[in-house]
Amino acid sequence: MTYCVAMRLEAGLLFASDSRTNAGIDHIASFRKMHLFEQPDERLIVLLSAGNLATTQSVVSLLRQRVDQDRPNLRNVTSMYDAAVLVGTTSKEVYARDGCYQGAGQSVDFGGDFLLGGQIRGEAPRLFQIYSPGNFIEATFDTPYFQIGESKYGKPIIDRVVRHHTSLIEAAKCTLISFDSTLRSNLSVGLPIDMLLYQANSFCQAKPQRIDQDDPYFHLLQKGWGEGLKRVFARLPNASWFEPEAKKE
Amino acid sequence: MTYCVAMRLEAGLLFASDSRTNAGIDHIASFRKMHLFEQPDERLIVLLSAGNLATTQSVVSLLRQRVDQDRPNLRNVTSMYDAAVLVGTTSKEVYARDGCYQGAGQSVDFGGDFLLGGQIRGEAPRLFQIYSPGNFIEATFDTPYFQIGESKYGKPIIDRVVRHHTSLIEAAKCTLISFDSTLRSNLSVGLPIDMLLYQANSFCQAKPQRIDQDDPYFHLLQKGWGEGLKRVFARLPNASWFEPEAKKE
Of chain B's two ends, which shows fewer C-beta atoms within 10 Å, N or C? Predict the structure, then answer.
């Protein structure tokens, strides 16, 4: 499994991904799911991947080996929309090559899901979610974030906190708490977390953070959040409608 | 969709279920998913259902119309284990009758999932999760709760709070918060919530609570929890590793 989040906020873009992959619960490995395509001062494109690792790795490899070829590629497309089309097309290409296999009674899902965000000079930052069939949707003011992979455990906290105007650093705090909830509930999502914050219009070199099990800030958030939740919970009153029955004992 | 939770704690049993069913997003209805089989002073058996409504309603109807027949039924089985076997067998019977339909290109899931808990005199309270194929598992000291239906959004808070020794009234508070998170994230889970707390060895008449949109306690929890989370979140520090980049702007 996988958990990836990306946000398009007023202040810029946020990307985060876990690193655990598994082919069955007895075959677990660590792979980076955040892929950068940069051209300093001109564009930053970030791709997060989930789903079939063979498919998503192939898509990333093809996107990389084509950046120097004379065809539409992630270095020469002039809009993030065109970048999304390119990723979708490449995903369909890999699926057409590898996805026709019918195992002996085995159902294999060859699909890959992607979050693609970034900024190309001349445009504002944009963020897309690209589905297995290669089609995609774009984040808007009302829905500033997307998730792929194991999204449910970590969604409530994002829904409560993140809005279009949330600052990048607050969004990063919220995202790490969202990862904490997910890591606790699903063993197939695992550390380290790769996180990248991009300030709109900065076009500066990307400096992804790698958050592993010894990261002091992540520890502090885990502890503070867990204790804080328990404190809020303890202070909330109990229902009165059970008391009469309790007294009977 | 559906969300049901049941807990087997030191103090007794807790059951909670939402009331929304849907056959497609354009066909939403309200059905009670909590079914009681009582014999005052002798047994209380509670069945929560999720999955295909036709299947689960049939299972409940058959269990009900057989309580007066001269065969194993929920009024004469001598253990909760035998009650679980009975529900599993009845579920298989309905599936064998209705589940063979192959729609024209449509894939219909005829399966039903159940949580079955209760106490029969001579035994401690017990709780089972019964799967579509009719097999089942029992709650233990280490895993005191089960969920069926849309379980993920509301799981993290239960995992943080509920232990075997948690009191029923605290577990009820936690369960309602878990429902709040689920209701916010999945429109196919809906009010009213049916909730039943059963004190171990009380064998008293069950008094389920129905919590609808006007319930003042549920309102208070929703508000207090939401505000509390935001307060905890606001007090947690921001990451220091983003500050240098922020200063550049």
Answer: C
What is the rounded distance in angstroms from the CA atom of residue A136 to the CA atom of residue A129? 5
Backbone phi and psi for residue B2, each to the nearest 5 degrees, phi listed first: -160, 155
- The alpha carbon of B102 is separated from its chain's Cα centroid by a whole number of angstroms, namely 30
CA distance linking residue B193 with residue B210, whole number of Å: 6
What angle (nearest 5°) sits at the alpha carbon of residue A45, between those of residues A39 and A51? 140
Determine the residue type at A153: Y
Asked if the peptide bond before residue A192 counts as cis, ω within 30 degrees of 0, the response is yes
Look at phi and psi of residue A167 and say left if phi exceeds 0, alpha if psi is from -120 to 50, else beta: beta
Q: With contacts defined as CB-CB under 8 Å, which chain A residues touch B235?
A: 224, 228
pLDDT at B6: 98
Tokens describing residue B85:
């076997």
Q: Which ipTM value was assigned to this complex?
A: 0.87
Enumerate domains of chain B plus CATH numbers. Answer: 3-215 (3.60.20.10)
Chain A residue closest in CA terms to B249: A202
Q: Do A237 and B220 touch (CB under 8 A)?
A: yes
Q: pLDDT, tens digit, for every residue of A175-190?
A: 999 999 999 888 888 8
Q: Are residues A110 and A95 in contact, defined by beta-carbon separation less than 8 angstroms?
A: yes
Determine how many CB atoms are found less than 10 A away from the CB of residue B69: 10
Q: Cα-flanking dihedrals φ and ψ of residue A107, to 5°? A: -100, 115
In chain A, residues with a C-beta closer than 8 Å to the C-beta of B152 are: 152-153, 185
Contacts of A70 (CB under 8 A, 6+ apart): none
Overall average pLDDT of the B232-241 stretch: 93
CB contact under 8 A, B156 and A240: no
